[in-house]
Amino acid sequence: MEKFNIDSKTEISFDQNDWNIIENGVSQDSKAKSLYKYFSLNKYSLDSLKNNYVYLSNPKDFNDPFDCSRNLIIEHQKEIEDWQYVETLNNISEIGISSFSENGMEPLLWSHYANSYRGFCLKFKPDFLNERNKELVKLKKVIYSDSPNPISINVKFAKFYQFILKLNNWNYEKEWRLLFQNPTSVNSKYYFDENSIEEISIGYKFMEPGNEEERNLKDQFDRLRKEKFKNIPLYTVGPHNTKLELQKLRLVEGTVEDALEMVNKNISRMFK
What we know:
The protein has one domain (2-77, 87-270). The protein has five helices and 16 strands. It has helices at 43-51, 107-113, 158-161, 212-228, 256-270; strands spanning 2-5, 10-15, 18-23, 26-27, 35-39, 53-55, 95-101, 120-124, 137-141, 143-145, 165-167, 175-181, 189-191, 197-203, 234-239, 246-250. It is globular, with a radius of gyration of 21 Å.
């Protein structure tokens, strides 16, 4: 068994290609209780929903340039001289990543990853990983730190470290990551059983048609949901009527029209 101190409060205990996170002397959960995946509404997310897969991204496409930075590995660090081109520090092709959250009601996640409440969110069963390619995939909790220690490539945990470490600024995401080795072998798509989806939520602005293309995407989503996920609970998420927080409302029949009617009723009550 190998141990590594990430910072003054967090330690990793690593053994047999798996690890345990210990914070302030307390062992953390190794399995998520719930997992949520946020999507913008576009042709790619509809294809993902239709064909039961999540996309495995290269970290260079993440919105955080420090995410998966090679600077966490001591031997990969290098000085940059004046006027030298500043290259991307997280262009990694051998690992594909798909991100999930423990929280399906986080305002910033709905804003950043569901196109300002115009997208949707899937709740997955925490054990949704299938048996295919089992030796190539891991589902692990992200570790957040204000001042993470760099690691030597000679430490066995180093091959995973940069993929599951983020700066503490991002801890509101409560992220878990699906890590897949050699993503090109599966065309950067990780397929799951459609029965792994427990519920679907749409943002409250989902019902506001912006243009013809958006209306068409919403129609495709609604048809897909009625045909394929008719037995899956559907919710809408938006601002609470009287509090500065989100609320989630169950759609009785599970149609966009029901959601719009519900929102209109709530707005009417607010101005009485």
